[in-house]
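Hello support,

Our group uses your service weekly, and this is the first time we've seen a run hang past the timeout. The protein is Phospholipase DDHD2. I'm not sure whether the cause is the sequence or the server load. Input pasted verbatim:
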Amino acid sequence: MSAAEPQPTEASPSLNSSSFFEAAETDTANKYEPVSPHWFYCKEADSRERWIPFSGQDSEKLEHFYQSSKDCEELVVPTEGGRYDVHLKKRLRCAVYWEEKDSEVRRCTWFYKGEDNKYIPYSESFSEELEETYMICVTLDEWKRKLESPSREIIILHNPKLMVHYHPVAVSDDWGASPTEQGRPRTVKRGVENISVEIPIGEPLQIDHLVFVVHGIGPACDIRFRSLIQCVDDFRSVSLSMLQAHFKKAQEQQQIGRVEFLPVNWHSTLHTGVDVELERITLPSINRLRHFINDTILDVFFYNSSTYCQTIVDTVASEMNRLYLLFLQRNPDFKGGVSIAGHSLGSLILFDLLTNQKCTTEREDDNKRKLHSSGQADFQGCLHATSDLLIEQPLGTCMPASGEEGLGSVKDVLKELELSEYYSVFEREHVDREALALCTEKELKEMGIPLGPRMKILHYLRNKRSNQDSKRERPAMAWEDGDAKQEAPANPTNVKSNCQCLDVVTGQVSANYPQLIYKPQIFFAFGSPIGMFLTVRGIKRIDPAYSLPTCKGFFHIFHPFDPVAYRIEPLIVPDMEFEPMLLPHHKGRKRMHLELKEGLTRMSTDIKNNLLGSLRVAWQSFTRVSLPAVEAGATGDAEQESETETSSEKQTDEKPEEPATPAKEEPTSINVGMLNGGHRIDYVLQEKPIESFNEYLFALQGHLCYWVSEDTALLLLREIYQTQGISLDQPLL
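Update from on-call engineer: The timeout came from a worker crash unrelated to the input. Re-ran successfully.
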C-alpha cells in the first residue's frame, strides 16, 4: 500500500493471524455471515456505464452454474427469457436474436456509490479482498482498517454501518495525501440487499406466443430517441405487468406463461451504403435537420422506390424467417402461434407482405412439420428444407433459369446497365446468364459488387420477371378502383379458397414479395398510415368479403392525436359514418376527464332538450291563461294554437322514451367485413388528461406512445389468448 501506509493500530488482514484464529474459536466468530452474491451486467447509456442487475431468477441460475463449473470449460447460460447468453468464463453477455455490443458480466458482492448516486460494483478480485478484511474485522471486532484498490483508491472500514471510499487526488505533493484530502468520501455497501436497486423477479419460462415487431421510419422509435430493441423491451415489460394484473387466475393455474416479443430491424440494412451516397448530395446548411430527414423521412420515399422497396421487403421477410427458425432452434418445445406487429411505416410493409402471401401452403406446412419434429442437431437440415421459402431465394423463381424472355449474356446485361467494369468479377466467378438469373443480393455482395450496381442488377432481373408475370391471368380482385368495381364471389365462404388479394400493382411500386415460412395468426398495426397509402394508390373501397390470405386477425390501434394514423374501416364501409372502437382503460373504466366531458355533454343536451322545452311549455301555458287576446293575436289562428299545443304535449310525452335508443350500442352491430373475421378493426386509445389541453403539443408523443401503453399491450394479450380459449379475469367496461 504505497499511497497511504496503514497505521500500526490498523493491522492488515495478514497481521495478528494468531489472534484471528484464537478469536475464531470464540462465540464472536458466529457474528460473521458470508455475503450473498448477485450477478450484474454493464450497459453503456448516454456515454456512461451503468450496472444493471439480472433478475433474481437469472442470478440464481448463474450462481448455480458458476459454483458447479469452476473447473469446467466455457459454459453458456441463457438469460432474460433466452434473448441473451452469458459466457461464464469470459464474463460476457451476448445478444442472441440481434446485433448488439457484448456487455461485461460481474459477480458482485461489494459496491460504492457513484457520482449519479448509482451503486457501482467492485471487481470480483477486490471484492474478495474486501470480504476477507470484513470477516477479520467482524471476528476480531477490530475496525478502522484501510485497503487500497488496484486503481489506488482508499477504502476504510470504520464499522459495519460506516464504510467509505476515497478517490485518489490528481496531483500529490512530496508529503503525500491523506484520505481526508482526497475529496468527498463515497459510501461503501456490502451485499445487494443494502443498496437501492430494483431487482426484477424474472419472466415465466413457458412461452405461449411469439410476436415479431417491425419499426417505422428512422432508427429511433420513441420520444427519447431510443432504438427498437429498447422500445420492445419496454413493451415486453408492460405486457408482463398486464399479465400479472389481468390474467392472474390463469397464471396461478399454470395455464399460461408469457408472450415473447422480438424486434425486426430493417433500417440499418437499407442505409448501409445509401448514407454514403446521400452524404455526397446533402447540402451543408442546417446540417442536423438534413441528417434527421435522411435518417427518417426519406424512408417513406425509399419504400416508394422500386429498387429500395425490394430491399426493404426482402430484409423484413428474411429477418422474420431467420428469427423464427432461430427461435424454434432454441425453443424446440414451442407449440404456440405467431403474430406480427408493425408501427407506422412498418405496419404498411407488413400489410403489403401479407396481401401478397400465397394461399397454397402445403410446402410451408411440410417444412414446418420438419422443423417441429427435428431436434437441435438436425436444425441445419431443416434450415435447408425451408431455404426455398426464405427471402434469400434465388431470382430464378422470378424468371426462367434458362435465360429466356429476352435476357442476353452477362456481358450484354452489364453493358445495358452501364456496369461493364464489373464483367471481370462475373467472369472470374464463372457466372453465365443462367447463373446470373439465380443470383441473390447476398451472393452479389459476396462477389464484391457495391450496393448501387447490385440494386441495378437485381432490379433489372425483377423487371424481366414482372414482364413475364404481366402476361399471366390476374386473380379476382377485392377492391374498387375508381368507378370500376370488381365483383365479389357469389359464395363469401369460399373467399379463402379463391385466394383473393388486393391488386397491389395498382399505384404501387412493383416488387417481388417474398413468402413467410409461417402463418401469422393476428396482425397488429400501431399508428398506421395503411388507409392513406391505399387511398393514394387509387383503392377507394376494400371488398367486405376480402381477408388476408394467411392471416385471420387484423387490429389497428392508434392514438387520437397521432398525425400519421389513418382509419381503415371507412374503406370497407364507405356509406356509413361511425366512430372507431374506444379501447378500454386497463383499469376497467374511462379516464376521469373523458367521463367528465361525456357527462357535461349529456347534461348540456338534457338541459337544452328538457329544461328549455319545459320553460317554453310553461310560458305558453302562462300566456294562454292570462292574456288570451294577445296569444290569439300572436298566433293569428286558434287552430294553429291548438296544433302548437298538441305538438308540444306530444313532444313532452315522447321525452321519456328518448333514452331507450342507445347510441353507444350502434358500433357493435356494424359489419366491417372479413378483414378481421367480421370484428372491428379500428381501435382508438383514450388520451391522457394533460394531452387533452393541447392536441398539437402532444401530436408527436401520440405517434410514439404505443411502446409504453398498457391499454395497447392489454389488447394484444386479450386477442392472443382468446385464440387459446383464455379470457381476462374480469371483462373491461
